[in-house]
Give the backbone structure.
Amino acid sequence: MNQQADIRRLLPSVDQILAWPLIQQLQQDHGQPLVKQAVTAELDLLRQHNSPCEPDLLAAAIESHLVRVLSPSLRKVFNLTGTVLHTNLGRAPLPEEAIKAMCEVARGASNLEFDLETGKRGDRDSHVEAWLCRLTGAEAATVVNNNAAAVLLMLNTLARSKEVIVSRGELVEIGGAFRVPDIMQRAQCKLREVGTTNRTHLRDYNEAVEARTALMMTVHTSNYVIQGFTASVPEAQLAQAAHEHGVPYVVDLGSGSLVDLRRWGLPYEPTPMDSLANGADLVSFSGDKLLGGPQAGIIVGKRVLIERLKKNALKRALRCDKVTLAALEAVLRLYANPEQLAHRLPSLRWLSRSQPSIAQQAERLIPAIQLWAGTRYEVTSEPVMGQIGSGALPVEQLPSQALVLTPIASKRDANRSLQSAQKSLRNLPIPVIGRINDGRLILDLRCLDEDSELLAQLKQYPLG
Ligand SMILES: *Cc1c(COP(=O)(O)O)cnc(C)c1O
């Protein structure tokens, strides 16, 4: 008999293992099906590696298998990338007011679509519509799942089987497969491109108008800029041209801030108020970019057009859930008091942090980080450039400060030790996400609200 057959014969059966006292306890805590899967998987591993069964080791392996499976997949991380509204890291952090509101409505019944005044069926948009109108000056507003959905809904409602005129300079692709030409197709519209990549004139739009034209549209080129010999048509002129031809003019603003960010020393980003004042009939923007709220797509503008959007069957498929609406209402309420906004809205608090205050924090943290990293790295504090993220203001950079880990090693080993430091940070109970740049690991501290949680886990899991 060969050795392999021997070991397999000696392995206990799944049922035998399920009867072990520790494994029985695990079944009580976590349920039989999950434990059985863990037992089967760990037995398979023993078989694959042709290892004999040591009951204590096998029981421990089964237990840690369960811990792995049961630990939450979606969890908190520290965003030290320097990109504040990082799409892959969940964009805007929500204010406490929003979190409280989300918990309240999540816990039980709410007046989501119930008018408490009349006792009749209500409209779920009503909880945010008045706030959106108050804040932007729009006649009406509606909300869907995200801004991609908002654009889809506008196009499909106002231009199905018809043409939409857009400048070639604005046929953007936003990360994660939002591409203007594809959305047009999905909305069953025909894209009528005008002008060139760098220059589009009013006459280009006017000459493209024909019987099948249903819309003129501006897409904010949020994640790139065209520089040099360029021309584009201002919103006010396009709005006027569209109206002369009897078609609506819509703007996809992308980020769209509800306040003038220059107030906090940040670069100017177009607002829906500006677009409406320029004559746009509808404006769409994201809830979780510069607005600093939950993932949502917001459309504000003319009441007759908003009414048409609400009647489209797609609106039902793209609508927001009650938890999102609760968060959005709470965030919009904060905008009533712009004086307090930078204190109360975490995304704006991060964006408006001054470089000196971040530098102070970095100085304070150097000793602890050096202790964590050990003698194979030198830890310094250096000025760096961060970004707003989510496509907002791609060229403008945020002056910030970072902790920088430089490996003390030959160039070849340096790369390996950087990768391993980065991996160790990712494997922490609360993963820390930084970036490697030019042979150094950079931890931008702009989005680190509080040191203690980070320090506690670094102390517990030193790198060296
Ligand atoms: C971000 C963005 C979108 C997509 O918005 P989501 O909320 O991510 O769906 C669409 N258009 C522009 C111009 C954008 O910047």
In short: Residues 355-373 form the longest helix (19 residues).
